[in-house]
Amino acid sequence: MMRIMGAVVTGVLLLTTVVGADEAPISGTVKSVDAAAQTVTLESTVKGKTRQVVVHLKPGAKIVKFIRAIEPGKTGFVEQPLALTDLKPGWVVSVETKHEGNKEVAELVKVVLER
Amino acid sequence: MRGKTFAFLALASVLLVIVLWVAHPPASRANGEKDEKDNDKGGHAHVPAPLEYADAHVPLAVWTDPAMIARGKEIYTVRCAVCHGDAGDGKGPAGVALSLKPSDFRDKSGVAEMRDNYWFWRVSEGGTGEPFKSKGSAMPPWKGELSVQDRWAVIAYQHTFSGHQGPHVPWEHPESVVVGRDIYVMACLPCHGVDGKGDGTVAATLSPRRAPQPRDLTSAEFKFRSTPSGQLPTTGDLFRTLTEGVRGPGGVMTIGLRGYRIMPSFRYMPEEQRLEVIEYVKSLNRAFRERGEVKIVGVPTPPPVTPERIARGKKLYADAECLACHGERGRGDGPSAPTLKDNRELPIAATDLTRPERFKSGSRPEDVYRTLVTGLAGTPMPSYGDSLEPDQTWDLVYYLLSLSRDGRRAAGAAAK
């Protein structure tokens, strides 16, 4: 009984830690793009600290910006796909990343602001 | 028995972990800003606007002007909705994953807490200023792309999402000045009174039946200003007065009180709190929001002091009849001095110009210049802004400052 309960407690603790750390949004300014390595380097500021984060794009990762729907009867925004090379330094993007190994890996990059 | 106790403790631990998780999720690995509580209002602490934006109040008519709101909608749809959402809920497609969430303009209480000058500052400067920069705000500054009128328009449209009708002002949203009100109650109320009319319980004991009395903050007359005669002070003027305090004329009861002030200096109050209390003080007087563009009296760079300039100033001192009140030697003992009264019909002393350390509006040449140009509203001290040229004003400034012991020494040094 004690072993089972101990295992449950440990499991829950581990689960909460893993779930809490596995996925996180990163938003920041594009500093550079490496099409060959499929990476985007972002400058991100959090809690007063600015740092550079290298985001690795998964094969087939989507990069999108949002434009107004132009089809009749449609309102709101629609996604417009972009290539990695379309991203320009200075643009602000948000990325949902997963921590794999020591890398931040992303499947979706959203352009927040082009400037 | 032991097994049951352990099971109970284990379950309690699990529950505790779950409760802690819900109440305060751990910071995310990469952006560290996963605290939903901090982000309730998009993480937007409604801090006071900095001084350069503190007077940027949105004109009252803008809030309900259909043309401005329509213009604001056009701008919002193109520039803001992608993050703030078409419905103003802060859930635009580009904004949902931002670490610092875009503001939800439908949040009535959140919007009510925002002052108009804060709003204008945020739209103008975006997330480039603190504390938003440190939180990783992606909000761009719009001042380079949107005119002042366009920024007013977009703010007026954003305001419509909150459902509030009418102008967005403190008398509609007292919660926007509640921090300043609490500071006022502790620090200002004893002299300035509950309603800011200068009738606090301590006021009557300060200098009974004599000026100066605590300022009636609801009136149109403020002595210490950088604005032209007849106008309200800037927020910066109020900030300076609050920070420096007001020096007193001295007297028997103040012997030994070096640096005696009739209004204390609040320089040790944190700047943010000083700005908050000033926003509350401004809320007591609607004219601060009803006035149009705030004009400031320019103070040119002080020219070098020369004996010739002081001599010209001495002549101006006589010609402008300064000596009628301040006396021939500037000691505040001119022939008119005993009869001087302020706008409350209280006797008021002419300033002793030989004691510049007691000048209420500052004793630097720039301060004296400003006082001569603006005058001191509510007192017999007139504005010389229309009657003296800037160069003449500097002549007079240097003569006035030469009346003190230190001034005579400085003038003597300049003569050599």
> How much β-strand is present in the residues of chain A?
over 45%
Annotation field: number of helices of chain B: 17
Strand neighbour order, sheet with most strands of chain B: 1-2
Q: Largest interface, counted with CB-CB under 8 A?
A: A-B, 44 and 38 residues
CA-CA gap between termini of chain B: 101 Å
For the record, what is the CATH homologous superfamily label of chain A?
A: Copper binding periplasmic protein CusF
Count the strands of chain A?
A: 6
Helix content of chain B: 40-55%
Low-confidence regions of chain B: 24-40
Q: Write down the CATH class of the largest domain in chain B.
A: Mainly Alpha
Which class do the helix and strand fractions of chain A yield?
A: alpha+beta
Please give the radius of gyration of chain A in angstroms: 19 Å
Q: From the 3D coordinates, which CATH architecture of the largest domain in chain B would you assign?
A: Orthogonal Bundle
Helical segment count of chain A: 1
Q: What is the third-level CATH name, the topology of chain A? A: OB fold (Dihydrolipoamide Acetyltransferase, E2P)
> Do you know the CATH topology of the largest domain in chain B?
Cytochrome Bc1 Complex, Chain D, domain 2
What top-tier CATH class of chain A fits best? Mainly Beta
Number of separate structural domains of chain B? 3
Distance between the termini of chain A: 61 Å
Q: Report the CATH architecture of chain A.
A: Beta Barrel
